[in-house]
Give the backbone structure.
Amino acid sequence: MIRRWYLWLPLVAFIGFVALVTSGLMRPMDREVVSRMVGKPVPEFALKPSIPELPGLSSADLQDGKPKLMNIWGSWCLPCIAEAPHLETLKANGAEIVGVAIRDKPEDVAGFLAQNGNPYIRIGADDLSAVQLEIGSSGVPETFVVDGNGIITYQHIGDVRAEHVPMLLEKLDEAAQ
Amino acid sequence: MIAELGLAALWLAAALAGLQLIAGAVSVKQPDGPLASLARPAAVMQGVLAAFAFAMLLWLFAQTDLSVKLVAANSHSAKPMIFKLSGTWGNHEGSMLLWITVMALAGAMIGYLERRLPEVTMQATLATQAFVGLGFYAFLLLSSNPFERLPTPAAEGQGLNPLLQDIGLAFHPPTLYFGYVGLSVAFSFALGALLTRQVTPNFARAMRPWVLGAWIFLTLGITAGSYWAYYELGWGGWWFWDPVENASLMPWLAATALLHSVSVLAARDALRAWTIMLGVVAFSMSMMGTFLVRSGVLTSVHAFAVDPERGAFILVLLGIYIGGALTIFALRAGTVQEGERFTATSREGALVFNNVMLSAILAVVLVGTLYPLLTEAFGVQVSVGPPYFNPVGAIFTLPMLAVMAVGPLLRWRRDGVKRVSKPAVFLAIFAVVVGALVAYLSNASVLAVLGLAFAAALGIGSLLPLKGRNLLRTPLATWGMVTAHFGIAVALFGMASESAFSIEKLVAARPGDVTEVGPWKITLDSVDPVVGPNWTALQADLQASYKGAAAIELQPQSRTFWSPERETAESALATRWNGQLYAVMGSGIEDGRRQLRLWWKPFVPMIWLGGILVALGGLLALIGRLTADLKRHYVRRRSAERREETQA
């Protein structure tokens, strides 16, 4: 039997690979995605009312001294139906909620609110997603906590579920200080 | 009930894999023992059961059964049917089930069909196949059960990653999987032959169709993946040296080397240890690719189903299989005779050169892929991209292409330089002329000029083996080689042209504005919102006219999917024989003007046409080999019958 040392080289290389990726696997990974908008003021904008019954929304409305939840949504969005009752709970607990309706029609918005309740004090119509994109939202629904000076303090991506309600109320309290 | 049936079938299949392992392993020692007849039927039944389990999962997805966790997490009742079905494998659990199903079906085919190998090697091969399979069954059943029920059914599914909701991508992963899993068969063959010391031309002939088949699927998978990245990501590029792309390129490089080396072994009984080594490496690359994509060890734009715990599981499997195989290799390869001798200037010599170059390119890609991980271990974050891969890869690619152009003209065993000197000189002059012309007429980079010159020479060189032959009597395998080599030249031509001659324009346009890009005049008509089944988008209506001809309509979109939320840029393409116009709409808006990114990419479709030709070449060779095998089988049976008749 002939023994050749170089036949072991592939195994040695492979052991090196395993050692390398094991160290890679052990390293803790940063998975939290922090929006680049957190800590920054809301960009300037003015949206016309989405439905005649409620006023529209502008960046000035977010600087009236009271922290607010800014909810990005659409009547065509299924998860928005799921989160509607939780927005009602937030409202019942004293949260002021303003809405930005993305690419929506007034009659659809009215229909949605009639069916799922209306937690909003203002709804702006963002027909071209311009505000949505500027504020750094990648989809609907999304909810921003904005303090009384118009600074974004928190971004919640996805629908608001029951377990998020206390957390969002806490964030609002923090924003008020 | 359906989910429980699927799970039961999966457990039974795993049990049969266990039986197959024991029966195969015992029969290697006792070829006439009581278990010898069990391994083959176990392999067949295992294939049937795994396929049944997969069919059940497919059914659950088709029904959008939201009581099953996997369906609820990855599907949605509003999704089009084709994407409901492709959602079956568009996630970690389902894709692992697809993997094990394809692997079990391949094992069933070996068990049912393969008669060329000595029975003892066959048993060792089936045992290895079952051993590898068991690891994946354990992975599925213990850590990623696709049939898990939810305590209470979900009201609605969470959808499928919108980037994956694309017809190209629906079929891209299965294509790659057929390739990866085909290589697992090559791996089992290689180990079976090594364990029983039967590394013979017959073994190579038995293994070759599997390598060819795997290689065809890998080629198609990479080609499709590259085209998908090109039009779906909206970045206008076709290859990014992303870890996920490299994960499929590395097994392809190893399989290409293996394919050539298996041919040498089959035809000339040389390169025995080398072929075994490549058989192990090729499948190792498939598994390493899977690991790198799933574990989150490397960051990638399109890694999916990332989970470090699963990564750890795959790593353990990897350690057992590859570490084990390489240990056996180190212990046994020395006992495999190297086989027939040959001189440097011979067909074998050229193929060895090709093998060495392919291995070097593989090493370049592997090092580049792992390098960020290595530096991160020392606390430095780097990313390795085209500035490394393109020139360093070219150092090995260009000499290989040169040998590829003339190598097939050489004879087996020994030959003189004389036979190829005339065509080689002719091709070299031709390449220099083409290169000089391109360099003079354009401001292309050095690599692009070299690429075009080599593509031209290889395009002609690859056709030379047909010269002076009766084309109707030329074996299909030769046609396959010529087609595949010509395909490489075509793809190279596309890559080099794209990088040498592309024109890019980034404009902020108002409706009515006209932009010129190369020979095209593009008018922005309007920007309107549009609504799809599960997305909304802004769509630009463009009128594009080529050299004053009638305008074509192009409609690039900036899409927003809402479940889960995600934005994608849907590019719009206008294809002409000499290139493609590529339009993307940016999401930015400045005082009523929209961002448009426009490219004119001359000859870029040649990249994928070349890929298809390469795969077609493989298919021709595969058909040629299989029909030759059938013919030989038939002739042998006839002569046996005749012998019996004369004896009677």
Remarks:
- Chain A has a mean pLDDT of 83.
- The first helix of chain A runs from residue 9 to 26.
- Strands of chain A lie at 46-47, 57-58, 68-73, 97-102, 120-126, 142-146, 152-157.
- The first strand of chain A starts at residue 46 and ends at 47.
